Amino acid sequence: MRIQPLAVDALYRSCDPNDVPFETTDEVTPLTDIVGQPRAAEALRFGMDIGRQGYNVFALGAPGTGKRTFVHQFLRERGAQERTPDDWCYVNNFEQPHRPIGLRLPPGRGRQLRQAMEGLVRNVRHVLCGVFESEEYRRQRDAIEQETSKQQEQAFEELRERAREKRLALIPTPVGLATVPADEGGTPMSREHVAQLPARQRERYQATAREFQKQIEGMFAGGARMQRELQDRLDRFDRHTAQQAIRPLMDECRRPHGNLPAVLEYLDAVEQDVVQHAPYLLKLETSEAAAQRGKPRASGGRAAGDEEDAVSGPALLRRYRVNVLTEHERAGGAPVIYEDNPTYQRLIGHIDHLAQMGTLVTDFNLVKPGALHRANGGYLMLEPHRLLMYPQAWEALKRALRREQIQIESLGEALGLISTMQLEPEPIPLEVKVVLLGDPLVYYLLRELDPDFAELFKVPADFDDRLARGREEQQLYARLIATLVQKQELMAFDRSAVARVVEHGARLAEDAQKLSTCMRPIADLLREADYCAHRNGHTTVMADDVQHAIDAQIYRSDRMRERLHEAVARCMLRVDTKGSVTGQINALAVMPAGDLTFGQPARVTARVGVGSGEVLDIEREVALGGALHTKGVLTLVGFLNGRFATDQPLSLSASLVLEQSAYGVSGDSASAAELCALLSALAKLPIKQSLAITGSVDQLGRVQAIGAANEKIEGFADICSATGLTGEQGVLIPRSNVQHLMLRADVVKLVADGRFQVWPIETIDDAMELLTGVPAGEAGENGTYPEETVNGRVRRRLIQFAEQRERFGGNGRTSRPR
Question: CA 20 to 30 Å from 3, out of 99, 181, 600, 816?
């Protein structure tokens, strides 16, 4: 036969332990760069270097490819060499308290300003208390009050003299001053004396008293004006005194910030507000001092309860605090922030509230920063699938990047659900590079469905899940394994163990010429091999320990596989591995079971009859066939038309089914098996049940590569081992899949012992020759095939169908001769 089974060395590409460039992993200097990702590294570098809006990065790749580790390490190294961003603070807006002011300060100066303001408030209260309780202050204040008092007394004496001249006396009453007639000596007359006066004289006294009452009212009005002027003078005096008292403290506070106009403007507003509220600060200091005299002293000289007061202190004192949103060390470099829970509030910040008297209150001190604040001036790492889980979080991120500023607002306000007055902190300018870490599916969905995405995330960093397997790459991969071993502080691996892990990396890549860069399963294997070595009492991890760990992984997950194999052994699930059957073939499918994927044979049967060219896919008819499987079946029709219906109609009615299938078929890897079963039924040639086939087929009859070739071969080998090996069993695979083979050691041994074979095929004709033992046959110059070949038999049968259809008039009714 012209097609030969594969040799043993084609079934598994081993890694020679002598190619591992060290004896144990302890000898290796850990790698600092990621392995096998030059494209992603260049894209990430480009995205960080270009200083234009919208050039944020989406790092896409399969889980476990090291995206987050590499991106975080790259950004940390880059950020350490960059300028440290400024600090940001929120301070009180004395004119509009609901709109806190954002202050930008050089690195480290935010904390300095906060401490300076805390000291200022503390010292101001003490200074004011000392000044306003001093003798000098009392003397000057008394002098002002005495001056006004003298003016009032002088005005009263002048009024009394005028009254005396008019023979009137001024008598104090509860409601003011009253005038009564007086004798020549100025002594007030009694009522009886006044009553004895002549009527004309009494009338004259009354007229004079009414006229003089206006002067009394004028004096009282002047007195009230003088009291107001006195109060104004006292207030100006108090403000001047307070300003003169705190001016040295304010100047000391201004001195370090002389080059920051915004800070100086804020300190000027603080000075004016302190002067305005000096009496209240004085009362607060006096009342607190009285309260503190009854409290025990804590260690360090502070009164018990001071910490609580510092948190929830009086509103008057809270207005002078500095709320430092972000602070940085002066030589700390650019920040790198990874937010693993990117809710709306944790992303853009939020405003807390305090419960007071049953009411929620807030102020600028309760404004809390988000991840964007912490990453401002640096880099922010987010996972888009988490970001999209939370309401408005994705929109908030896009809005911040588009506006290049962070606006803190509540979620209810962002959704338009709250109309009450809220704090409106001043927006903070945003300068950040965002890196999203996600699956390729998420990237392509966002790019397709969100028009803003392409404008804001212009740079894709595509992480490859496979690495070429050359000699140099294998050695680099071995160093990567050693780095993982050292990083996780595992027992040292010898070169044989490392070589076995390299081979497993090729198995995970499903390609003998590639290595998987998904390091999560590799890291899991290293930890489990370390456990096996400890359990076996080894001082270093050897190849046997790695193999035991692999076997244990399979054993933990293969309950379903064992059940299916048991069902085959007990004939509940029928799979024939001996004999020959017409129109029946063993196809190969794969079943996922958690982390394990295993192969499972499945019978495909075909039935044919006279018809009009229909091939019925029963799986599709009952909604168990996926789109790819349906495509594969329709491709068979194209093959039959192209090969056998060029000069006659395809008068065929056929049905195909995957027997005992309960879970459906999603791929097209069974299309080669279905075509072979169909050709067998047409040619009336039995197919060897000792063989199974996998592969898709095109309309030209060429067999194409499929996935999971290793698992499919191993699955049929396991079934044959369970039902009894005859030496004739084997699997037909596309020749293009030979380069992917990394079969289990036990299956390779079966092939080496001649008990199992793997056959590479290129066309459906190759498959039919192996499956039936009959030559496929090649078309002659007239398009016909030799009679006893597979194709010749199929063509003859189709001609018979066409003739029968014609006799029945093409509609299922027999034509009567005339």
Answer: 600
CA-wise closest residue to 685 among 595, 800, 775: 775
What is the Cα–Cα distance from 375 to 393, expressed in whole angstroms?
16
SS3 711: helix
Q: Name the DSSP letter for residue 365.
A: G
CA 85 to each of CA 113, 264, 382, 440: distance values in angstroms, whole numbers, following the listed order = 17, 21, 20, 33
Give the chain's length: 818
196: buried, middle or exposed (CB in 10 Å: 19+, 13-18, 0-12)? exposed
**Distance from C-alpha of 546 to C-alpha of 549, rounded to nearest angstrom:** 5
Q: How far apart are CA 468 and CA 484, in angstroms?
A: 20
Catalytic residue among 651, 669, 680, 696: 669
The catalytically annotated residue of 67, 514, 688, 712 is: 712
Instruction: Kindly give, in sequence order, each residue whose CB lies less than 8 Å from that of residue 179, ignoring residues fewer than 6 positions away.
Output: 163, 168, 169, 170, 171, 209, 212, 213, 216
Q: pTM for the whole thing?
A: 0.80
Strand 596-610 and strand 652-658: the pairing is: antiparallel
> What would the two tokens of residue 501 be?
């892990």
Least reliable range by pLDDT among 131-145, 656-670, 788-802: 656-670
Can you say whether the dihedral through the CA atoms of 564, 566, 568, 573 is positive or negative? negative
- Looking up tokens 């807006």 gives 93
For the four alpha carbons of 641, 644, 645 and 650, in that order, the dihedral sign comes to: negative
Dist. CA 231–CA 135, nearest whole Å? 20
Give me the mean pLDDT over the 470-490 stretch: 92
Name the residue among 473, 561, 571 with its Cα closest to residue 516.
473
Least confidently predicted of 392-401, 515-524, 638-647, 787-796: 638-647
**Cα separation, 578 vs 580, whole angstroms:** 7
Name residue 601's beta-bridge partners.
588
Sequence-distant (≥ 6) Cβ neighbours of residue 573 within 8 angstroms: 564, 567, 660
Contact in structure between 452 and 126 (CB atoms under 8 Å):
no
pLDDT digits (tens, 9 = 90+) for 250-289: 899 999 888 899 999 999 999 998 888 888 887 776 666 5
Residue by residue, DSSP assigns 511-528 as -TTEEE--HHHHHHHHHH
As a whole-number percent, the residues of the chain with pLDDT over 70 amount to 85
Residue 582: closest CA among 701, 733, 653, 683: 683
What's the rounded Cα separation, in Å, for the pair 413 and 407? 12
Burial string for 525-560 (b: 16+ CB within 10 Å, else e) reads bbebbbbbbeeeebebbbbbbbbbbbeebeeeebee
The Cα–Cα gap between 192 and 208 comes to 19
Could you give phi then psi for residue 584, rounded to 5 degrees? -135, 140
Tokens of 383: 């996972």
Separation between Cα atoms, residue 737 and residue 126, nearest integer Å: 86
Residue showing tokens 């300190």: 267
* Residue 134 Cα distances to 130, 138, 231, 275, angstroms: 6, 7, 20, 18
For residue 669, indicate whether it is catalytic: yes
